[in-house]
Amino acid sequence: MLELRGVCAGYGGVEVLHDVSCAFLPGSCWCVLGPNGCGKTTLLRAMAGLIPHRGQVLLEGREIGDMKRRELAGKIAVMSQVNAVYFPYTVYDTVMLGRYQHIRASLFGGPSPEDRAAVERCLAFTGLSDLRRRGLDELSGGQRQRVFLAQALAQDPQTILLDEPTNHLDVKHQVELVDYLRDWCADGRHAVVGVLHDVNLALRLSRNVLFMSQGRIVRSGNFTEIADAPFLHSLYGMDLSGFMRQSLALWKDIP
Amino acid sequence: MRRGLKIAILTAAGIICLLLGMGVGSVSIPVADMAAIVRCRLSGAALPQDIPAITASILWNLRMPRAIMAFLTGAALAAGGAVMQSVLRNPLASGYTLGVSSGASLTAAAAILTGFTLPLLGRYTLALCGFLGGLGTVFLAIALATRFDRNLENTTVILTGMVLSLFVNAILTVLTAFSHEHLQQLVFWQMGSFSGQSWQNCGVLLALLLPCLLVLVRYGREMDLMTFGEEQALSAGVELKRVKLLLIAVSALLTGSAVAFVGVIGFVDLISPHVARRIFGSNHRLLIPMSALFGGTFMVLADLLARTVVSPRELAVGAVTALVGAPFFAYVYFGRRRRERGA
């Protein structure tokens, strides 16, 4: 279980996240919703130990700040939007890098048969087996994002944190990615916490929602139970539910 | 083509270039004679009748240390450059473009001018000065670049490095003007030269190069992860701060100590990793040694050209590498921009 107790975090002395507490159980998917600048990404980065925090971020009761990076990497993986690939690695090598914390650090040591098997599983799960010898620079945006999903899966974590990984993907690939992760979570041992811009896509990932505003969690729980039109209006500064209904009406009109 | 075959071909090319570097010149020495001379020198036996003593002396005292030093320097610079490109995620980074070379040359020049030697280090003093100067400059360049641009955009880093490098070079020029007795040595040094290298220098550089290469191969996977971004590396389990510091230090040690012996030679450290990546892929456990092998080979060839093209006069080897390297730099930079715009 990943638990936050009174967590504050920010950048360069400016606090963005104020006194956030929440918990994520294995087998659950959560999405974090809120307007731009409400601290969604900062929350994720604090949970992954990428930025320093005050308060406690506890993983199975232990503070993540006290854990070695290798140990933490075996429990939490982060998938974000990687925009630039500077050097042409192959698909296989890129996914194998996800096994980093499992491979013993030594001069001549390499991946074990177990590591290879894990990479094969992740390639198969993401449908990349046939592309393994391709360079990342030869792939489409959607394929490349699947490679990074496979890399995160190869870490064999309990929790994957998603930081807007679907930017610049077309609708088909966005939905695919979210569905992969939902399936991965469905075995009851894994958890996903996602920050996704697109509200509909986020709700496809999960009905469990954390609503954030100005660096605090304002409501959390099942979307249909905690959301209502006036709340969403004040959160987003626009009539979100009205907008969604309008769109839906349009879709209903076509054959 | 299989990987083993590629490695074998590159190694063979390296050996052939070394032999050319030792054999070609005002006196040309066939391979068979070279073998005889080396055998006699090592065993202490007398030379065969048909080989003049002067030829043996040219090979053993001048050409061999020179070619070997060129190889080691090229290897050290190339490996150092490959590390910089990975750590900074910047295909344009290298010891030369970041000002490591200039910094190292300034401190090493200062050490030569003042005749300063550290008690216990002796011959390693110059290398140490080069290392400290190089390390100081690269940290300064990164600190300044961070100040201007917190995202550390590629162009900012390179621009800062270039400005710093020009500035440090200017200081060296001023120093040079005040020192008449060392003038010639210092001027030549700003473009690099392998003339007058000794076996001792080869020994010192080799003793530094080998352990550094081993450390770099050991941290190959970390470098692979770092090319995908610092947060990626962190979340995959790399102790980023420690590893990054270590890698930058090793890179500065390689570049700094090479520069301390032979002066500033540009572009080898930029080109070699790119060529090696083309041939062997991006995996740093292979890329580092192969960059070194290519860099060494390239440098021996460049030095061969530098001393034979306008013979009996000699070109600065830095001029030869720049003639090849500057257009290559432009190609990487503009090729990259075109691709980014196309994407």
What does it look like?
Chain A is an alpha/beta fold and 255 residues long. Chain A is built from 10 helices and 10 strands. Chain A has a domain at 1-73 and 201-255: Rossmann fold, CATH 3.40.50.300. In chain A, 37% of the residues lie in helices and 25% in strands. Chain A has a 6-stranded mixed β-sheet, with helices on both faces. A 4-stranded antiparallel β-sheet of chain A has the order 2-1-4-5, with helices on one face. With 343 residues, chain B is mainly α. Chain B has a single domain, classed as ABC transporter involved in vitamin B12 uptake, BtuC (Orthogonal Bundle). Helices cover 77% and strands 0% of the residues of chain B. Chain B has helices at residues 3-23, 31-43, 53-87, 100-114, 124-148, 154-177, 183-191, 199-218, 220-226, 230-236, 240-262, 268-280, 284-308, 317-342. In chain B, α3 (53-87) crosses α13 and α5 (124-148) crosses α6 (154-177). At the A-B interface, α2, β6 and α3 of A face α8, α9 and α10 of B.
Short description:
Chain A has a domain at 1-73 and 201-255: 3-Layer(aba) Sandwich (Rossmann fold), CATH 3.40.50.300.
